[in-house]
Amino acid sequence: MEEKLQEYARLLVRVGLNVQKGQDLIISCPVECAYFARLCAAEAYEIGCREVVMNWHDDAMSRMKYLQAAEDVFETVPAWRERFFNDYAKAGAAYLAISATDPENLKGVDPQRIIKSQQASGKALKDFDRLQMASGFPWCIASIPIPSWAGRVFPGAPDAVDRLWDAIFAAVRISGDGKCVEKWQAHLDTLHRRVEKLNSLRLASLHYTNSLGTDLTIRLPEGHVWEAGNDVTPKGQTFIANIPTEEIYTAPLKTGIDGVVYSAMPLVNDGNIIDKFHFVVKEGKIVEAHAEKGEDSLLAAISLDEGARYFGEVALVPYDSPISNQNILYYNTLFDENAACHLAFGEAYPCIEGGRDMTKEELKARGLNDSITHVDFMVGTPDLSIVGTTRDGREIPIFVDGNFAPDI
Length: 408
Description:
This protein is α+β, with helices and mostly antiparallel strands. It has two domains: about 1-170, Thermophilic metalloprotease-like (3-Layer(aba) Sandwich), CATH 3.40.1830; about 200-225 and about 245-405, no CATH class. It has helices at about 1-15, 35-45, 60-70, 80-90, 110-125, 125-135, 145-155, 160-170, 180-200, 295-300, 335, 360-365, and strands spanning about 25-30, 50-55, 95-100, 140, 205-210, 215-220, 225-230, 230, 240, 250, 255-260, 265-270, 270-280, 285-295, 310-315, 340-345, 375-380, 385-390, 395-400, 405. Helix 5 (about 110-125) runs parallel beside helix 10 and helix 7 packs across helix 8 (about 160-170). The two termini are about 40 Å apart.
């Protein structure tokens, strides 16, 4: 176990973030995961990291705050927190987020408090968010188990934490043989071959259908580009934003989506579980949202700003993939989004030719969405069909029965 933990920390710091000598590293981490954060810090210092700076958080304290703090607390962001995130982002510090939380930690919290907090944070940390979406600094999100989360994934199991560790190690290609870096390079090569194929098709739109009732047409902006796996900062530092990752993604045309789309898996958002939901979409805008569980939370999520009712990401993930084949519902978007095709409402990645160098206004002029939120939700099913239409009018199967068509 100790060897696997060391290998995982090494993967995140040396490959996921590719931390450079003299670079600062920010680690955002639950207090329950301090032991793993220390392993990551040790790896970074061994490379020659200038300083590792911790940003601790805690489920219990967060819940107490949202339930009992004064109302005005949620309307502002302390100046020190604004400076902390924005200044380190502008300086190009590496950012590691260790994602581990109780999926229902904020169940019963007034949604308006969450909305106010997110709106205040979106305004205060706009530089951080902008640079993160544009790969302005290396960042990586990864997870390790905590008891409350493991108990949700494996209810009633006395060894839930150990079982979740085994699942996570399998998902990130750590088997104890010390070869996860080589495995990741082969995986990235496969993703990039598909990226090249999709980019060569010059698709104008995608049409999604499945037996849940999804019937959705998504137009893509002219000059869009598909991306996957590792990314690169303006200074040439490569990194992998999500570990694990199985997706190939691009940005949709903000006003070019029409139809209905049904969720294929529960969504954990802001400490609440939202399940069996669907959206009705007209000219890109979500005009109806319904959920059998967590509808209030869903409506709150798409009400943060004007852009929250529009879409910012289209991601392709084969149903036959390492995470999906585990048949585990993680209740954690990092894993669940990499088990199925997904969409995201909110901010768009600048997946358009020259997009990394464009201003917000220029990206909006090219048809990309702008928002302070970005929430992935899963739509992939075993029978999902996606048919692409090219700029010259050819129809090409992209997904057949939940997986990439043979020619993709």
